[in-house]
């Protein structure tokens, strides 16, 4: 009896208590679950009513339109609320769109996104979103946020996809406008853009079999709070296919003219920025744009090969393009060795404001045949002159230990270039066993 009293009875009591508590918990859950779910539904409906004011509550509907996250139909027939997702500048961007039963927009709302604060995020402000109110699927008159073309395009794409879903769900035909992205504008025949890693680029993509798209940035107008970003399309022949202005904070109507065809069309078919005429009244923005393109051309040097020489007669033989092999050389950022014994080497030197990047081609005879300098970190109009042909051309023909005169007033920047060049010669000679 003692065993029963001391062990069995307490265990039975505890078991009974657990059964009672578990039963109470189940009863509580079954009682409160509908209330919790109803509260969640009411909260979600309240968010949707923000973009479709005449709706009362919603029921979920299914759509096959690509890019649509979810779609809801207003129970009272007021219309639809559709959320879509497209790739913005910083990553996925979601937009909620309220479309009334007459096929016009009641309101739009920027949802989750990773856009640049103060630029791309402006697409969530009333100054931009209010443009959509009352618009039909053509979105005529909706203008992009100045300096946030990519974010604006992604936002607009989301709205267009929402309209496609609306057309499918409501059984009506809708006509959508143009939402061409910068990469599509430059390479209109390419469907597959494969993102690649390219040191020095903000972003880089292989444009199908047509070339490469490289996004670089440089300081435009000196009073602008952020650098300007430029898309440069480069064909496999090393020539520019097209350029486009990306995220920027240039002066609207002035610096932003660098994104217009009257300016950008000058670059097509060129293999350098020589001869490009600046936008009148926007010299700093134009210079920044050119520098960004120059950077892209320099970065693309290791991606594309020279076009084969044209035949001058039916008997002329076609000269094969030079082919190089990337090699590892101590003290260099990148090195490419060519069959003729020459090498293209990228190194850095410590400048006045930061690292100056130099890419030098050294012939088999140990003499410089070509050179380019990226000195965007240096003082504009002083140290940046080391990037200009007037200076870099003076290096052609020089050997190890030989240096031309420094840029007047830019001794530190010039010394940085010299430091980088001598690093290149050291690496070159080491590769030859010297």
Descriptive overview:
The protein is an alpha+beta fold and about 425 residues long. The chain is about 30% helix and about 25% strand. The protein has 8 helices and 15 strands. It has helices spanning about 1-50, 125-130, 150-170, 180-185, 260-265, 285-300, 390, 410-430, and strands spanning about 60, 70-75, 80-85, 90-100, 105-110, 195, 205, 210-220, 230-235, 240-245, 325, 335-340, 345-350, 355-360, 370-375. A 5-stranded antiparallel β-sheet has the order 1-2-3-4-5. It has a 5-stranded antiparallel β-sheet with strand order 6-7-8-9-10. The chain has a 5-stranded antiparallel β-sheet with strand order 11-12-13-14-15. The chain is elongated and about 85 Å long. It starts with a helix and ends with a helix.
Summary of the model, kept short:
The chain is of the alpha+beta class. It has 8 helices and 15 strands.
